[in-house]
């Protein structure tokens, strides 16, 4: 069953979700109540699919976005940015979500998938991978070495070292996990871009604007993330809101809540606005979102968007 | 030929140059992760991350550690039969208060208290403890009915390697004595910890300082301790200027209490008390009641 969610309802329900987050309430429960419904208008701007089968939920979320063919034409080179760096529970994208996206890209006729950040072999070990999927995984190419690229319109950042494939691929698919983050309060699609940027450049985001390297510069970090997203807006973002760390992120350990939800959008700001809501955080309180909106990367105003939610 | 005094000065300068930027020589030196802990065996060498090397271990998560005062971290995997593994990390901080703050930032409002070190919390698949200069974090790869006792054995074994304990931050002691629940408070030392506990623009407009962020009843509160009365006053005024810039609906009453309307019923109230800035957010009149309670705790110290 699909429901459209207004911004007002979303924020009200998000606030409930946030205050209940450590008490163990599930996002699915929070959104179970009918929140007004109207005729389905595909493709969605934001697709929210809940279910215990994360692979199927991912496939359905992309279908609600108009299907993978909308984003990956036959013969396309796909850049995949997968948050897989950490190992603590709730800190990395579930492999089945990544597998679903990879399989869909192949079935759409992608010529090549390039990983925009190195993925360790360990990442796939927790997942039982079929022979077909194993073939897909083996065909994924590693990213090329970072090189300096200019950021037009950046406030803090004028240049970073980024994976060239990020700019050159035909379709850039962003696979973040929506989780707690001590530096930006929560992390999702926008911050995940740092995975395609060199550690050396990323550290300048964290070092702050002062020559002394003020490590507390949340404002500088937030602006830098927004600036970096001027490099390229994802063709599609698929966010993992299944088993996510709700405190102690991004690395953990910490409490993990299972919201059994996959969220997809072409707008990384809207997706992160939704993600912030999971944590009960208002978008206007998150500098990263505010600056990204100022750059025209996306919108925090969900009211005008078609948000379709389904439970499998 | 150089005189003794000049020689001493040169040696001193060389010593300063050599030690600049290196991890501090702390009382904790010599601590590491032992080869065995009960039935657990360390399966690899101990990786040590000093200073900015921490980025290699936890990437963007490192910022919070630096804010609190990070010195070095020890990391290793442990295994035990049958087919169990655990990741252990021991973080050495610059002071017991720094370590306690980091501990609270990770554990506030979560898990169950367990008897490891000076304070410890166990959640599903992990245990985090504080003792002296150290915060230990132990995570098991798989969670089931026996992983809890196994975690405790490993965390308990690591804790005994740490000889020295440390004192709680004074503000935390004060609040505990006044009846505030320690499990619901975080000792903060900067913007990141404050922001991650209190992700609201009105709170984050306050200049950073040591303090406590907590929850009491349906309200959230913060107390920031500035260097003196004048600094606290300047800080509150700076925050007020920021609120105006952000166009937050703010009023100042005749008693010197600032009120920020956050929603139809939710309100934040803030005031200065000597070197402290106190803030409480909640609905209707509850913030004023808690503010009064906090004021009482500080005045009776």
Give keywords.
heterodimer; A: 312 residues; alpha/beta; eight-stranded mixed sheet; disordered N terminus; B: 301 residues; alpha+beta; nine-stranded antiparallel sheet; seven-stranded antiparallel sheet; 10 helices; 16 strands; elongated
Question: What report would you give on this structure?
Answer:
- The complex is a heterodimer of chains A (312) and B (301).
- Chain A is built from twelve helices and twelve strands.
- Chain A is of the alpha/beta class and 312 residues long.
- In chain A, helix 4 links the parallel strand 3 (77-82) and strand 4 (112-115).
- In chain A, helix 3 (54-64) crosses helix 4.
- By secondary structure, chain B is α+β, with helices and mostly antiparallel strands.
- Chain B is elongated, with a radius of gyration of 22 Å.
- The longest helix of chain B has 17 residues, at 229-245.
- In chain B, the strands form two sheets. In chain B, strands 1, 2, 3, 4, 5, 6, 7, 8 and 9 form a nine-stranded antiparallel beta sheet that branches. In chain B, strands 10-11-12-16-15-14-13 form a seven-stranded antiparallel beta sheet, with helices on both faces.
- Chain B has helices at residues 4-19, 54-58, 62-68, 96-107, 147-159, 170-177, 191-197, 201-204, 229-245, 286-299, and strands at 36-37, 40-42, 47-50, 70-80, 84-93, 112-113, 119-123, 126-131, 134-140, 185-188, 210-216, 219-225, 250-252, 258-261, 266-273, 276-283.
- The relative contact order of chain B is 0.09.
- The A-B interface holds A 22, 85-89, 180-183, 185, 187, 191, 194, 199, 202-203, 206, 215-218, 221, 247-256, 279, 281-282, 284-286 and B 52, 55, 58-64, 66-67, 87, 105-106, 108-111, 123-126, 128, 137, 139, 190-193, 195-196, 199-201, 204, 208.
